[in-house]
Structures are given as structure tokens and as C-alpha cells.
Design a protein that fits this description.
By secondary structure, the chain is α/β, with parallel strands linked by helices. It has one domain: 3-Layer(aba) Sandwich (Rossmann fold), CATH 3.40.50. Helix content is about 45%, strand content about 15%. The protein has nine helices and five strands; from the N terminus they run αβαβαβαβαααβαα. It has a five-stranded parallel beta sheet. The protein is globular, with a radius of gyration of 17 Å. The model is unreliable at about 1-5 (pLDDT under 50).
Length: about 170
């Protein structure tokens, strides 16, 4: 089904992870008025939920990192007029945070084996931190450009960040 057939608005928050995503998913998005929020634990069922309910506006949230392009393709196939939200973080802090999570979860690679900037042989590639390419990828698959927000702006002025997100 297509969002245009139902005359509904669909917003997809697609991440990235480690950019205050959990905070947004549990503290901010559920408090938004006038929009049906489909949280990350129900992401796999979002299309079924949309098809079975009669809401006019939906917000689906699930953070993606290395699988962003694959998921964007799935979403855009059905909901090409969806409005996309991406939160980014400076690449150095972002990849360091990704690595800390990896180690915390039992990963044993050295940082260089995890992300090798010089030779691009690590588990994560330079293309994984090419955020402009990710934005362009999204722009090419949806009718309007995504809302791109920055984790650093959330830390600096949370109210302005939330206002910008809510007004979108």
C-alpha cells in the first residue's frame, strides 16, 4: 500500500544509533500529540500496524547504521512520500561511541581492526561514516529531503532541537 492512497503522513526516524536515539524513542516521541507513534520494538510490524489502524499521521522510529541503505530501500518502495528524520553526530565521537558499545557487548577487536581509517580494512568502513552520502541516498529515494539534526545541537540547546523536530 502507499501512503498517498490513504492520504496519511508517515515520518520515519531512521537513526543513526548512538545519537540520543533511545532518549528520543522513550522520552520524546511518545509525548508528541496528534501522531501515532510506532516504537522501535514494533518496527518489524510497522506496515501491518499502519494498514490496520485509521490514523492520519504516523511516526516510526528505528535506528540504522550499516543497514541504513537496505532499510531505506524497503521504506521508500512503499512509502516514497514519507518524511525522513536523521540525527547525526560528529564522526569521530560517533565511531568511538559505536566502538565502546561493541566492546561493552563483548567484542574483542582492537579499535584499528574495528575502524581502520588509513587502509579501510576494519569491520566498519570509511563509507559508514560518510554521512553526506547517506543523506544523498535518502534524498534520492524520497519526494522531499530529510530533516537532518545533529546530536551536538541536542546537547547544546535541547529545547531548540525538540522544537525543530516537533515542527517538522
Amino acid at each position: 500500500m502507499s501512503a498517498t492512497k490513504h492520504n496519511i503522513d508517515i515520518y520515519f526516524h531512521i537513526g543513526l544509533g548512538k545519537t540520543a536515539t533511545t532518549y528520543l524513542q522513550y522520552e520524546f516521541f511518545p509525548k508528541l500529540k496528534g501522531i501515532y507513534y510506532i516504537q522501535r520494538t514494533l518496527y518489524r510490524k510497522y506496515q501491518e500496524i499502519i494498514d490496520k489502524t485509521q490514523q492520519s499521521r504516523y511516526l516510526v522510529s528505528r535506528e540504522f547504521d550499516q543497514q541504513l541503505e537496505e532499510e531505506v530501500n524497503k521504506i521508500s518502495t512503499t512509502y516514497h512520500n514519507a518524511k525522513i528524520i536523521i540525527v547525526l553526530r560528529r564522526q569521530d565521537g560517533w565511531i568511538a561511541s559505536q566502538y565502546r558499545r561493541y566492546v561493552k557487548n563483548g567484542g574483542g577487536l582492537s579499535f584499528k581492526a574495528y575502524f581502520d581509517v588509513e587502509h579501510d580494512t576494519g569491520l566498519w568502513k570509511r563509507s559508514d561514516v560518510d554521512f553526506m552520502a547517506k543523506i544523498k541516498y535518502v534524498e534520492d529515494r524520497f519526494e522531499q529531503p530529510p530533516l537532518v539534526l545533529f546530536h551536538e545541537d541536542l546537547k547544546k540547546d535541547p529545547y531548540a532541537f525538540f522544537d525543530r523536530l516537533a515542527s517538522f
